[in-house]
Write a structure and sequence with these properties.
Rossmann fold, 8 helices, ImuA_translesion, alpha/beta, Translesion DNA synthesis-associated protein ImuA
Length: 269
């Protein structure tokens, strides 16, 4: 094993001094997560208001549900920004959670350099309460991560950095790092690092049933072995059903099938 001097370890930020820890963060430096168990596990009593927070795990396991209470509260004061999300945010679902479409910005730079530049500018601008980032290059170096964290501090912005679980052991300047795992109708959370407090706490938060698809499996779907006869009465019946369906979507009065036939004949002539 290669020997390192104490000063070298401190310079490389691989070792911290115990007296540098604050006894407890001020109440104004954090806000409630919306989950009592998570607030109790966090030394600050909630999410930090600025700086980088890393969420490590697979995408689409409930990580956004975990953030919704705080994002809803913060978006009322300043908008939030999505930078290079793996899936396109769905405005109706976010509106149902209390985050209006006009309080959000979606940015999708083409390459990693543009993503880093845009993220730093957005975080430092002071215009956004939170910036959520996913980078094409997940294994960013210490200098890149530190620039993002400092930019978030300067702009008083909450930087939510989503990263793969494989990078949990990588050194990061983010004061708060959480590792997320999916469980049966729940989300497992492990605190990997938190400023001013101990790490290693594990907890499980039950997710609401509304987040799960309440649909029977495909094996139970009906299967038709014979196709319906393609005679004229069936075609007219289908036209009538289609016109009623369109009327319900467009909120317009439905026309009878015979009237639709006569209109199509007139247009043909």
């Amino acid at each position: 094993m290669k020997n390192h001097s104490l000063n070298q370890l401190l310079d490389e930020r691989k070792l911290w001094r115990g007296q540098q820890l604050r006894p407890r963060m001020a109440a104004s430096d954090s806000c409630c997560t919306g989950f009592k168990a998570l607030d109790a596990a966090l030394h600050s009593g909630g999410w930090p208001r600025s700086g980088s927070t890393e969420l490590l795990g697979e995408y689409g396991i409930g990580e956004l549900w975990l953030l919704m209470p705080t994002l809803r509260e913060r978006s009322a004061a300043r908008p939030i920004c999505w930078l290079n999300p793996p899936y396109l945010p769905y405005p109706p679902a976010l509106a149902q959670q209390g985050i209006a479409a006009n309080r959000q910005l979606l940015v999708r730079p083409k390459n990693v350099n543009d993503q880093l530049w845009a993220a730093e500018e957005l975080l430092r601008s002071g215009a956004y309460a939170a910036v959520l980032t996913w980078f094409a290059k997940t294994n960013l170096n210490d200098r890149q991560l530190r620039r993002l964290h400092i930019a978030a501090l300067e702009g008083e912005c909450w930087h939510l950095h989503f990263r793969p679980a494989a990078l949990a052991q990588q050194i990061s300047p983010a004061p708060l790092r959480l590792q997320l795992h999916t469980a049966k109708q729940a989300l497992d959370i492990q605190i990997m690092k938190q400023q001013g407090g101990h790490a290693g706490q594990q907890l499980q938060l039950a997710r609401p049933a509304a987040l799960y698809l309440q649909q029977s499996p495909a094996s139970n779907w009906p299967v038709y072995t014979t196709a319906p006869a393609s005679n004229l009465p069936v075609q007219r019946q289908l036209k009538g059903k289609i016109s009623l369906l369109n009327a319900s979507i467009l909120n317009t009065p439905a026309r009878p099938a015979k009237q639709l036939d006569s209109v199509s004949k007139e247009q043909a002539h």
